[in-house]
Fold this sequence. Notes:
It is built from 14 helices and 15 strands. The two termini are 24 Å apart. It has 424 residues and is α/β, with parallel strands linked by helices. It has 2 domains: 2-190, 3-Layer(aba) Sandwich (UDP-N-acetylmuramoyl-L-alanine:D-glutamate ligase), CATH 3.40.1190; 274-421, Protein-Tyrosine Phosphatase, Chain A, CATH 3.90.190.20.
Amino acid sequence: MKNALKSFVAFLLALIARAVLRRYHPHIVMVTGSVGKTSTKDAVAAVLTTRFFVRKSEKSFNTEFGVPFTVFGAENPWKNPLAWVSLFKNALALLLLPNHYPNMLVLEVGADRPGDLARTLRTVTPDVVVVTRLPEIPVHVEAYASPEAVREEEFSPAYALKASAPLIIPSDDLYALDNAMRTPARVISYGDTDDATVRIHDIGFYEVDGAVAGMCAKVHSAGEEGTCIVKGSVGKVQVLPVAAALAIASAFSIPLSEALTALESYEPPPGRGRLLAGGNGSIIIDDSYNASPAAVEEALATLKAFPHAKRRIAVLGDMLELGRYSVMEHERIGALASESADIVVSVGIRARAFAVVPADPKVIPFDNARAAASGLKDFVQEGDVILVKGSQSIRTERIVRALLANPADAPRLVRQEEGWEQKG
């Protein structure tokens, strides 16, 4: 009964969303991929706002429910019946009453199960597609026949593009490069390879008064040069969304200098490599939004390279939805963590595999985030740099919250809404 009701509501939302899009005909920029979609969506929207009336997906609204929410300009009503009534009322008003509707929608789309993106594409047809990284072992792989099947679905919005429509892809992603050749789209690549259309290089930490404050890189695009700075977050993965946004600027003939100015106001969303002041004079790298093997690998590389650290502590939760690849990937990440951190803190049952050597004194195990939050609060010291990362269901943001120097920073974390708190 519950699944039937959910399916009916999803059908109704899609039906109204299609009608709204037919009425207003906005340009659709669709952001897909396995890693960095939300950051990329935010950076792309920041650039396009210079020329268009833009609406973007809020947070990570990328499902068969989230995409219509964005089309309607509505918040997630969670389990509030009155909020659902208001949502449908406002959605119908878009069809029946005059509205000043955006002429550009930037939509993040995602797939948890086979067919998710096919259903989304029946509702929304993209005019531009931005693809983020498609790693070897993607998240949600346990629901698919193979990693290739995940990558194929995540790339599928590109096949819906018209001839010569812009397709923005990572220049070092062999899967995206190969599949792009099977589309009629106009390919624009971004990344740190020499042949990238928008090339970033000299990627490094951005420091202010001797303290790390973000990332910086040089950029080349269409004969122009510039410098991009991403404030408040660290890691190469925090620069790639900016590069993707500059590729969008190229597609819409927005000069590099204008796009870089627009990106000065951009900062990565919560839980994506965000720098926070930790207790006892420590520094927190809050990467608690989610965790896939590729993302954890990048986060560990950032921790390893982080300057001025007394101790590097990796607090790593379970990586979920990996199916038969789970044990192998947890053991592989455990070996990387041992090389990248002075101390590894495992959170969850699967994360115990991070102890590559049984009873390794370097690994401190906890069963869950609440236990880790309690156990680590007095453990951290001045000069420690603490990376916190784990899959959503592990709720590693609770660890970040416990380690904050200033409790007033809690609203800057992920999953602080009442709806999430009610999930336990």
